[in-house]
Fold this protein.
Amino acid sequence: LLHLEKRMQQSGNFPKNKTLTHEKLLQLIAAKIKKTDLEYAKEDVRVFLHDPKALDIWSEQFFFDLLPHLKSE
């Protein structure tokens, strides 16, 4: 988590005077999920998949359901 915090600060995506906590990370990811155009993302990665139907499960709810399983150190 500390390494991610430093890289995010280095790139200007997180304030240098703040600490990245697990809870804050989840909030940031949730905000990004809400902003993401999933149909565009699907089209972007479809060419790399053997079975494009694997993308059928991608939805905002799918990614929100994954958040509680995210672990950080």
